[in-house]
Amino acid sequence: MSTMPAKEVLERVYGESEKSGERFAHLSKCFAKNFGDAEVEFFTSPGRTEMIGNHTDHNGGKIVAASISLDTIGAAAPNGIGTIRILSEGYDMIELEIAGASFVEKRSGTKALIAGMIEAIVKSGFSIGGFDAYMTTEVIAAAGVSSSASFEMLFCTIVNSLFNDNKMQLSDCAKIGQYAENQFWMKSSGLMDQMACAAGGAILLDFAEDIKCEKIDASFDQLGYDMVIVNTGKGHGDLSEEYSAVPSEMFQVAEALGVKRLCESNLEEFLKNMNRIENELKNDRAIMRALHFYSENNRVEEAAKALEEGDSKAVLNLLAESGNSSWKWLQNCMSKSNEKDQKVALTLALTELYIKQIKDGCCRVHGGGFAGVILAVIPKELTSDYVSYISAYVGKENVYPMQIRQTGAVSLGN
Description:
8-stranded mixed sheet; 4-stranded antiparallel sheet; 12 strands; globular
């Protein structure tokens, strides 16, 4: 039988040990039922929230992000057969021979993602062997809190612990996840999702050179607020083209500026050349998205400072400004492929009415946008009231009050 995570470990990660202990006991039982008795190791990987820095990482921007209290958990053990077998609760078993990973069909769901990570791990010079894993998740799928990155970082943490003596760094794991999405899902994702899931707590990320990750000693709990993720009712899984157009158009502007990424130039230089670039590209939306990039980068620095200083008013103002820029300049609050479906914009409008009434808090589009979720920051004493209010429009099952989690993707011991 496997040794369950220690009570003090669970209390450190989850703030309690009863409910979380039941989850890992369930995990252990399900592993044994499907893979037989083995000495398993337990793992956890949180989802993430992006507080500010919307769609800037791919062009070398800055972001304040954080791990959240919703997570993916797994029980895993080496199997010695050169095959990875993963069973996620509610899904079919995935079996993949490590030697055949590079031949897996691209875009083929989770199997392709696993194959991409295997290829990236080997290319990065790390070790990987066959293992069995049973997983379950609380992270909302296709809703902007990075269920895929949470899975990727759980996979990397398992491989890191079982086969690499924990020599893989956070940035290694993030790049492995990104490689899998870019090369096997054909999705133009940056590194923010993976870093935020892996690191734990609030972090300031700078993607201008190699990834810089700086911890921020802050939480909304300390400021007297709760984060509330609201699923607006439609995922962004079928919007890859619109999602990918954001970095693509920013790269076009960067090229017109004579650089590879927007971070290698600045707002002043861009404004000097804007008329010329506009004439060259014939794409006003690309111009607007570049303006968003430069303005958003400045806000990120201010927000990180305000969080460190506990200046809740400044934090709320900056998050609201960022959300406004995402809506108007970046333009990721509705899909051009179905302009009548405006669930994100509608839920923001309803939340803005609530915030105007209570004269506190803020809201913004969350994650990739176009569909999916919004983030509301609500005074703790009014969280349950807001949950009731917005649930009347989206359903209570789509409303998730949460806090920043200080622990990233880790092994909980064996």
